[in-house]
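Entry:
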Amino acid sequence: MKTRNKVIAVMLGVIALLVVGSLFLRFRLPPVTVRAEAIPGLTVGGVPVTNAVLTMLVVDIVLISLALLATRHMRLVPTGLQNLVEWLIEALYRLTESVAGKRWAPRFFSIVVTIFFYVLISNWFGLLPGLSAIGFCEARPAPGQALLPGDSTLVSPPASARLAAPITSQNAGGSTPIGCQPGEILIPLFRSPSTDLNNNLALAVISVVMTQVFGVIAVGPRYFAKFVNVKGMISAFQPDERGQRRGCAGMGAAFAFGAVQFFVGLLETISEFAKILSFSFRLFGNIFAGEVMLLVLASLVPLLLTLPFLGLEVFVGLIQAFIFYILTLAFFSLSTVVHSGHSEGAQGNR
């Protein structure tokens, strides 16, 4: 019970910080863009580094630091951060074991739980008050022109394109810009990795590739037979189970059934690629839309009315991380099961 109270206290403390920050930290916000912005002057091997990549490194450092702090002074009777982390890990391991079975849970656990915590911290990182106001001011294109991302070439924008003007405060001496100067736009230094489709695509590819790896480990090379299944069509021209030659009707029926199996294999192949798109766009759409919603509400309605939506986004970030975790775990588990039920992988999951 004490551990549960500590977890609740930590969650309430984080929510309180978000609320207080939203009430008192008011900054000039950057324009909303789908594409992650390149950090001016920061490249690696000639490749520009985006703010989402930089935030990804920060999230990794946070996770590694928490792991080191929790295990720095290990005690038989855990207390403090060690107690909290062990409680979370134990709860997730029990859930993993209930889905994957005792044999496969140790192999799946490190991958799916790492994905869970990474996605969770990434989702919540973009909700930190004032984070999007930290960045660089870049010259705004002249009226009637727009600047291509990462390029100095000027092109004519569509008639509806318009950059938001900087916020100003009124005083006795006139109008004083807050943040960037007039004619400049803000490029944020940090951006939630979950709002960058490239980050989500990489996680989805890792999930799908490891699904195939575990499938091969469980049932061997014949795992790929479910994708390219021509055995049924070939067997139609061979004797039946009793060793008798098939007639035309029996051969046609067997061939038709084999063709259905082949078509099902094609659907299995398509579904593996569909998983990548589903993983990527589900996470991107929910997190990116939530952050945009908070920005729009903050400019349209009184601030206090946006606080319930801030709490909603904290919950959505948790749910999306859990969905990514549980779907990856389910795909790993299904890959170790052969439909005939005679494989060692299927027996290990019972």
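The chain has one domain: 2-137+191-348.
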